[in-house]
From TrEMBL:
Protein name per its UniProtKB record: Glutaminyl-peptide cyclotransferase
Superkingdom field: Bacteria
Amino acid sequence: MKRSQAQIIREYGPFPGVDAVHGVTYDGRQVWIAVGQKLLALDPDSGATPRAIDVAANAGTAFDGKHLYQIADGRIQKIDPASGQVLSTIPAPGAGEDSGLAWAEGSLWVGAYRDRKIHQVDPETGRVLRTIESDRYVTGVTWVDGELWHGTWENGASELRQVDARTGDVLQSVEMPAGIGVSGLESDGAGRFFCGGGDSGKVRAVQRPGAAPAA
């Protein structure tokens, strides 16, 4: 297993009125962050937050190229980002312990925090298609270039981990600095991971190992 230390490129926040950052996703232009009772749009270049959607948002967030998905209170909401309307909901698999959320291969991928699992879920029905076991608490989840990554936050330590999507084996670990936790996790599809910072109220951009440095 490869091990490295996280290279933090930039910090955003804390943001006015935001006590904690939970889920994080990226729509190709802006980062969406779940902050409890709303989703905030964050411009990753300027750091501005020009828009909010009023929706329960206390865990993972994902984007499928057209819609946002947001975990809240044991369910996954499908949201029209233009109107902010909740279009449908499905049950979340973790019985209220759901954490991260990602979209890949036509499925939702849901982190189950204390269960130390990642579930692949049918986005129409909520049916669990398969489950990947972890040996650490699972926070954020993301896919990039065919690689499955998840965040951990346990006993005061956080990592970003690339895991084998078939076996759950850890392929590489990127250790965050002491005192910095990872709640949500998302890739920009290139050289950056966006990491929710939990009750710090911050979002951090971290260099993805092996990728070209972010501009």
